[in-house]
Amino acid sequence: MGGGCHRFRGVLIVVAPALSGSGGLYSLIMLASSPVFAASFLMTKALTRYESTGVIVLWQAIAVTVLSLPLALWFWTTPTGWQWVAFLGTGVLGVTSHYCITRGFAVADISSTQSVNFLDLVWASAMGWLVFSESASTSTLIGGAVICGSTIWIAHRESRARHA
Fold first, then answer.
1. 10, 85, 96, 108: which could form a disulfide with 147 (CB 3.0–4.6 Å)?
2. pLDDT value for 4
3. What is the DSSP letter of 18?
4. How many whole angstroms separate alpha carbon 152 and alpha carbon 146?
5. Is the CB of residue 10 less than 8 Å from the CB of residue 143?
6. At residue 21, what are phi and psi to the nearest 5 degrees?
7. If you count DSSP H runs as helices and E runs as strands, how many of each does the chain have, helices first?
8. Which of 123, 126, 114, 124 is nearest to 151 (CA)?
9. Which of 121, 150, 148 is nearest to 137 (CA)?
10. Which residues are CB-contacts of 4 (< 8 A; sequence separation ≥ 6)?
11. Per-residue pLDDT tens over the stretch 56-74
């Protein structure tokens, strides 16, 4: 059985206890965002054939700004000084991560870069523990171990296939 299936099982182990349906509309919106992200990654990969990484990241930033502006204006409150600093830091980290992802798409096959995305659940749990003192559930720890193990296995398999 492929590592992708094992990663998906790891994700199910992590999120299954929370699938109570209590999230309502917000859970459906989050679920609907998955194909949008997939389409975004595929379009970005296609654009790397013709455009530079900087141009792609600039257009991504413009698109996100334009699409999120209506809700930002609707709920606007003036940020404090520390919030502006946090926004600036978030912006720098966001642009840097988009640049790295886009650069990765330019130099590697998209299937080999996406296996690492499943580690987001693991990093989110680690940050929850470090920043908010949240304790990870048993299902999160088991699912995280499955995700990490399958990601390492896939990376090793891909490395062997490239060098063979």
1. 10
2. 54
3. G
4. 10
5. yes
6. 85, 0
7. 7, 0
8. 114
9. 121
10. 115, 150, 154
11. 999 999 998 999 999 889 9
Is 7 in contact with 146 (CB distance < 8 Å)? Answer: yes
Cα-Cα-Cα-Cα dihedral of 45, 47, 53, 55, to 10°?
Answer: -150
Q: What is the pLDDT of residues 136-160, one digit of tens each?
A: 778 777 877 887 787 778 777 777 7
CB atoms within 10 A of CB 51: 16
Placement of tokens 């349906």 in the chain: 21
For residue 110, name the pLDDT band (cuts at 50, 70, 90). Answer: confident
Q: ∠ CA(94), CA(100), CA(101), 5° rounding?
A: 90
d(CA 108, CA 29): 30
Q: How many CB atoms lie within 10 A of CB 158?
A: 16
First to last CA, the chain: 21
Closest CA to 48 of 118, 7, 99: 99
Token output for 5: 């299936």
Domain chopping of the chain, boundaries: 3-16+25-163
| Residue at token pair 């003036």 | 78
Tokens 């600093």 — which residue? 85
Ramachandran sector of residue 24 (left: φ over 0; alpha: ψ -120 to 50; beta: rest): left
